[in-house]
Structure formats: C-alpha cells, structure tokens
C-alpha cells in the first residue's frame, strides 16, 4: 500500500473515532445543535376529526373581525385535519398573491403540526436553513393548527399583512378553538 494512502487512512480513522467518542460523551454538548436527541417527540399532537364547515367559517370570521378592527386587509384560509381547504375569505383590497400564501400557511400548520412561526424562527433565529428544503414549508408567521381536546382538527392561515399582522389575526381566530 502507498505510504501516503496508509497515513491518510490512519488519520481518517483517528478523526472519525475521536468524533464518535466526543458525540457519545454526555458531558460534552454536541457541536451541532441538530445532533441533540430529544427525549420526547416534538410537535406530536395527534390528528382528530376534521373541523366542520360551520365551525371553520366561524374561525375565519374571527380572523377577519380582528383584521378589520385593525384596518388590515388579509386573506384567511381554514383547512381540515387532512389539510384540505374548508373555507376561504378574502377581504376587499387584500393582495392577490396572499390568496395562495394563506392556504399554504394553513396546510403547513396542519401537515407539520406546528405554527409556521416555528419555521420562521428556525431560519431567522437558529440559522437552520435546511428547513427551507422540506416540502410544503412556509417560513413565515400566520399559520396555526386548530386543536380541540388535544387533537388537531384543522389549521388557519392568514396572509396579506406583515407576518406579525398575519399571526395576530390568526391567533385571535385560533383562540376561539385552542382553549
């Protein structure tokens, strides 16, 4: 065997074994925060029966009322526990691009069982840009799961304002369900 290759292989083996030993040492925190293994599964709220049309319309109306009170023009989508659109409302003057965005936020909140703010925080605060490679992710506030009796019955998505405005309108609506 070529001596250079042998030295290179030995160095690689030593580096790998040192890395494995470090990762297995519970006294040392992992260098990469993504290597942390949680004891419990995060965002593990079970799916429940789908939200009814009447209830979805009431939730959407609550978001519209909050936005109207503040003078914001938004689009509001409510999906069921399977991420299927149940109802959609568009305020006069709300931007057209936000029609699809509101629906996307609602679907992402249900599919990933978490508010879309979690993705925004992952990218903006933690630098976990890999989440942007996941299908159907929206890294913008304004998508919130609707949870009743500990189960996801649907999700609401608001879009048209700033992300923080969208979140405020959605949170007011979600509060009518998430108690």
Any overview of this molecule?
Helix 2 packs across helix 5 (163-174). It is built from 5 helices and 4 strands. It is 42% helix and 15% strand. Strands 2-1-4-3 form a 4-stranded antiparallel sheet. The model is unreliable at 3-23 (pLDDT under 50). By secondary structure, it is an alpha+beta fold. Strand 1 (75-80) and strand 2 form a beta hairpin.
Summary tags:
four-stranded antiparallel β-sheet; 179 residues; 42% helix; single chain; alpha+beta; 4 strands; disordered N terminus
What is the tally of helical segments? 5
Rg calc: 22 Å
Structural class: alpha+beta
How is the main sheet built?
Answer: 4 strands, antiparallel
Report the helical percentage: 40-55%
- Catalogue the unreliable spans: 3-23
Outline:
By secondary structure, this protein is an alpha+beta fold.
Fold topology:
Blueprint lengths: L2 H22 L28 H18 L4 E6 L4 E6 L6 H15 L5 H8 L18 E6 L2 E9 L3 H12 L5
Antiparallel strand pairs: 1-2, 1-4, 3-4
């Amino acid at each position: 065997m070529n001596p250079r290759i042998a030295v290179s292989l030995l160095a690689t083996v030593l580096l790998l074994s040192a890395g494995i030993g470090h990762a297995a040492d519970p006294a040392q925190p992992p260098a990469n925060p993504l290597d942390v293994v949680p004891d419990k599964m995060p965002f593990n709220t079970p799916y429940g029966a789908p939200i009814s049309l009447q209830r979805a319309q009431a939730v959407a109306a609550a978001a519209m009322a909050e936005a109207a009170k503040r003078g914001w023009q938004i689009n509001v989508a409510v999906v069921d526990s399977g991420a299927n659109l149940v109802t959609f409302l568009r305020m006069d003057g709300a931007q057209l691009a936000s029609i699809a965005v509101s629906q996307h936020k609602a679907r992402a909140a249900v599919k990933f069982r978490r508010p879309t703010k979690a993705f925004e925080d992952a990218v903006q605060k933690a630098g976990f840009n890999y989440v942007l490679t996941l299908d159907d992710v929206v890294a913008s506030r304004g998508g919130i799961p609707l949870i009743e009796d500990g189960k996801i019955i649907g999700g609401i998505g608001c879009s048209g304002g700033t992300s923080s405005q969208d979140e405020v309108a959605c949170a007011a609506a979600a509060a009518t369900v998430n108690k």
